[in-house]
Specification:
binds adenosine-3',5'-cyclic-monophosphate; disordered N terminus; 375 residues; alpha+beta; 6 strands; 14 helices; single chain
């Protein structure tokens, strides 16, 4: 049996639940535009019911085959089944299977019961890999967002109360109570402005102007906080990923945590295929590379030099300001840590002992190449 996600698995079975959900949701949506009892209604309702049957069967199969999941190797079959049923995926599959029966049991008429098929859209959530990132971002931004929401509600209540005071005599129908004025306040503060309620007094219009500008400021703040939290979260992910890679390079292994943290900020990881030319002889150089895993070859004559994991290359152009001394090709799929020239200077300032080691090796290579050329 193929393992889910195994190398030979085609993409189609993986996205099948989403394709089936799409067919079911489309049929449900289209069915709301047909005449009850018409041929189109019967066909579309048939598709919705068919999709529901597939989801019920799919849920039963998922429970049955849960112990086959490769990551659950060694876990008892019942525990694997229970874990699946309690997972987010399990809950979504259960909701999908219960959608239509829930409608029938609550006594909704047939076509209305079908509307619950909209929960099948939850199946898409599993596909969106960025969702966990989004949740983390929202969690990170929550305290700041909460302050903005508080300010929003304070302005909303004040705007509703003031507009009621200013407008109740001029427009007793539209602004007859604060709850009614709240509708105007939210439409104005959110800068939506339906135009169904418009202040007529000068004070009311001035208030409207202030509320609109406050709305723009609040949403700008809101967007700024979320964007900032996104940037911080991405930086955090980059930091953690790069940390593991840096810790794997023997060159950095003797450093303490503080020094590694400094260096991690300067490096970025690059996954490179075999056959990629990372450096071309004669070009100017703007970065050097540390090999975390894989292999690179400096194409020196007469004998190319293999550079294994832990080695670095591309330092000579940075150290001596010369063009690249030779071409360097990746000969095995590799993970490299890239250090740009500007960050190389920062490293030289912060960690001169490291740059001294790089410099010594660069000098040794330069001398060796010069000796070879002389021979
Ligand atoms: P750079 O000149 O910037 O670009 C080519 C790189 O190949 C060079 O830096 C070194 O990192 C590497 N290189 C050059 N000569 C040798 C050598 N003799 N042994 C190992 N690596 C070398």
């Amino acid at each position: 049996m193929h393992r889910p996600g195994g190398p030979h698995r085609s993409r189609l079975p993986v996205i099948l639940p989403e394709l089936v959900s799409t067919a079911g949701i489309m049929a449900m949506i289209a069915d709301t535009g047909t005449r009850p009892g018409s041929a189109a209604d019967l066909v579309l309702s048939g598709i919705v019911t068919g999709v529901w049957c597939l989801f019920v069967a799919g849920y039963a199969l998922q429970i049955w085959s849960a112990p086959e999941a490769p990551e659950l190797h060694g876990v008892s079959a019942w525990r694997a089944r229970r874990d699946y049923m309690l997972s987010a995926s399990g809950w979504i599959d259960l909701l999908a299977a219960l959608a239509l029966p829930a409608g029938w049991l609550t006594g909704l008429p047939g076509r209305d019961a079908q509307l619950l098929a909209i929960v099948w859209a939850l199946k898409y959530i599993r596909r969106t890999s960025g969702l966990t990132l989004l949740l983390r971002v929202m969690k990170r931004a929550l305290p700041s967002l909460a302050s903005v929401v508080t300010v929003f509600f304070v302005i909303l209540l004040m705007a509703a109360t003031l507009s009621y005071v200013f407008e109740r005599e001029a427009q007793p129908g539209a602004f007859s109570s604060i709850p009614q004025a709240l509708w105007w306040a939210i439409v104005t503060l959110s800068t939506t402005g339906y135009g169904d309620m418009v202040p007529a007094t000068i004070a009311g219009r001035l208030l409207g102007a202030v509320v609109m500008v406050s709305g723009i400021v609040i949403f700008a703040l809101w967007a700024g906080i979320i964007a900032n939290a996104f940037a911080e979260e991405l930086q955090r992910r980059h930091f953690l990923k790069t940390w593991d890679l840096v810790a794997d390079v023997p060159f950095f292994q003797d450093l303490g945590a503080a020094a590694i943290a400094d260096i991690v900020r300067l490096l970025h990881a690059r996954h490179v295929h075999a056959g990629t030319v990372v450096i071309r002889e004669g070009e100017s150089g703007d970065s050097m590379y540390f090999i975390v895993s894989g292999e690179a070859t400096a194409m020196l004559a007469p004998e190319p030099v293999k550079l294994k994991s832990g080695a670095f290359f591309g330092e000579m152009a940075l150290l001596f300001g010369t063009p690249r001394s030779t071409t360097v090709v990746i000969t095995k799929p590799s993970v490299l840590l890239v250090l740009d020239v500007a960050d190389f200077r920062v490293l030289a300032g912060k960690r001169p002992e490291l740059v001294n080691v790089i410099e010594a090796e660069g000098q040794r290579r330069r001398d060796a190449n010069a000796a070879l050329r002389r021979d």
